[in-house]
What we know:
alpha/beta; SsuA/THI5; D-Maltodextrin-Binding Protein, domain 2; globular; five-stranded mixed sheet; 2 domains; signal; ABC transporter substrate-binding protein
Amino acid sequence: xxxxxxxxxxxxxxxxxxxxxxxxxxxxxxxxxxxxxxxxxxxxxxxxxxxxxxxxxxxxxxxxxxxxxxxxxxxxxxxxxxxxxxxxxxxxxxxxxxxxxxxxxxxxxxxxxxxxxxxxxxxxxxxxxxxxxxxxxxxxxxxxxxxxxxxxxxxxxxxxxxxxxxxxxxxxxxxxxxxxxxxxxxxxxxxxxxxxxxxxxxxxxxxxxxxxxxxxxxxxxxxxxxxxxxxxxxxxxxxxxxxxxxxxxxxxxxxxxxxxxxxxxxxxxxxxxxxxxxxxxxxxxxxxxxxxxxxxxxxxxxxxxxxxxxxxxxxxxxxxxxxxxxxx
Length: 328
């Protein structure tokens, strides 16, 4: 009888141990929709490749949805759990009085990510050089274009009177349009800007990121209901992101380029190092996931000046910093 009790006790202990292991090893899938594929999002790819999400028990299913409207539609229709997109999209959604608003919970980038590229080499560039030229900007209503207009006005240029502003070309075709002869200047993301400079197509003369100041340019967001029903998951997600942000802030350019290469197979490592260095040097990568009130207000100022702000929205209405502060 004593032996039987001992065996039963050992069996129960084993079952408890196995159950505990199964709970610990359980992996939860999280579907993330990113607005575009860009080296601007290096910390996200590092979090995946370094296994920071995996350490938290998360399996990230990453989909590129190519455009803010498509990304938000994917999130709202439950095609994704989390979206990586500009914070302005959450304001657009809120203006429609949704039952389940979209909430920003972790910031990835904190500046604009575009650069001003000149067709001709310009020595000692000044913003006033743009007057009387043809400027190939970004899509109207999008954050890149709004930030672009904000920077022009800041430097004494009326984007609709002092130059010829072209903003009716699809995002995917802007670089091609410039390379085939459209525009004296163009607003471009990396790595295209550096690639054009490398190929002699254009020359980087200024950064919209350094000129427009800190703002929640790209953040992770989700529906309010998802945050409430999956609090632990979002906490794990944000912790993994913070680990990646710290890593990106101190790691070598060579190591970072190798880590993100699977997402940019057609881009040379040297070029990726140049791009990552440029973004990191100007402070584009947020070093923690907290979206603060000053950044939020700067975003709305830029939107308002562009005539695209449907209504003022308080920081606490569409931003939840609890997860980010806990992770930090």
